[in-house]
Design a protein that fits this description.
The protein is built from 13 helices and 12 strands. By secondary structure, it is an alpha/beta fold. A 7-stranded parallel beta sheet has the order 3-2-1-4-5-6-10, with helices on both faces. A 3-stranded mixed beta sheet has the order 7-9-11. Helix 8 runs parallel beside helix 10. The longest helix is centred in the N-terminal third of the chain and has 22 residues.
């Protein structure tokens, strides 16, 4: 059984992906890593957990050697809004953290790495409707800059696979929606916060315009798609950087209308702030036909199905 490490295991994606990987590979075979002070109880009790920072290459190297790691999911990242508040930290964590992971992998015999890119890699010069796989990448945020640079790193090492023997895979995640993870500093996090406020207070003030359409995905689809990409035969993959990855696109108004079908008393108002400018630089819809062709990607959750599941699970969570 492969030995796996998840760096950034307590973050938005890692908190759910780590548990799924432990189901797949066995708890003792998946090492969870975070720089945060606490692990969730389920994660702490289901397998090995360590605390170190992705910018500390020596700590990473010791840990990878100690556990005999063969596959790394390098998820440690500052998201878009947080990155704008501290661009230097974003550069160190998002990009130097990736380069450290690649260097350690090459030194320690790791064979495969997953690293998440984002729709933030696009920018205002990118076509916003059905954004193609290969297109202009001129982001206007530090988060986006680190994602483009990271994609280019992956492309380099994959292009020279015969030389390095390292298989790197990536997805350009859209906005991710999860009932398990609290909002974490992303521009699309309104689509998580709105559910919590709808249930707790019956109202929500959105920081984006009501007509701001963005690509989104429910976390169960994102986790499944990530695992499917990692399991796909290398010879079928035609993208050496990061795959476009899509499910549904909607506006705050459309999401609010869907919530009102289940919570009729819910009210929403709009007060766009600095996050609106970031959202306006991103695509409305993504063309992910290459992923669907190369490794059979297909999403399962539409807006109605996701909304119903979010409300049911957040209600249960808040009752605890």
């Amino acid at each position: 059984m492969a030995k796996v490490m998840v760096i950034g295991a307590t973050g938005q994606i890692g908190s759910e992906l780590t548990i799924e990987l432990r189901k797949k590979y066995g708890g003792n075979n998946v090492v969870a890593v975070t720089r945060k002070s606490e692990f969730p109880k389920e994660m702490l009790e289901s397998g090995p957990c360590e605390k170190w920072d992705v910018t500390n290459k020596e700590d990473m190297k010791k840990s990878v050697k100690k556990h005999g790691v063969e596959i790394i999911y390098q998820l440690a990242s500052l998201l878009s809004v947080t990155s704008e508040k501290d661009p230097n930290a974003a550069f160190q964590i998002n990009l130097i953290g990736l380069k450290n992971t690649i260097d350690v992998a090459l030194e320690c015999g790791v064979k495969k790495i997953f690293w998440p890119s984002s729709i933030a890699a696009f920018g205002p010069t990118t076509p916003r409707e059905n954004t193609p796989q290969r297109t202009v990448l001129e982001p206007t945020t530090m988060y986006g800059v680190t994602k483009v640079a990271g994609e280019n790193l992956l492309n380099y090492y994959n292009t020279h696979y015969e030389r390095y023997g390292l298989d790197l895979r990536s997805l350009r995640y859209p906005g991710l929606i999860s009932w398990r993870a609290e909002p974490g500093g992303g521009t699309t996090d309104y689509a998580v916060a709105i559910f919590y406020e709808a249930i707790k207070t019956g109202k929500y003030t959105c920081y984006l315009r009501e007509d701001t359409m963005l690509p989104m995905m429910y976390m169960p689809d994102a986790i499944r798609g990530t695992l499917e990409l990692m399991d796909a035969p290398r010879e079928k993959l035609t993208v050496k950087g990061s795959y476009n990855f899509a499910a549904i696109s909607f506006t705050p108004k459309e999401l609010a209308q869907e919530i009102k079908k289940l919570l009729p008393e819910f009210k929403i108002q709009y007060a766009p702030d600095e996050r609106q400018k970031i959202a306006d630089s991103w695509p409305k819809k993504i063309d992910d036909s290459q992923a669907r062709k190369d490794w059979g990607w297909k999403h399962e959750y539409d807006l109605a199905k996701m909304t119903k599941d979010m409300i049911e699970n957040i209600r249960k969570k808040l009752r605890k």
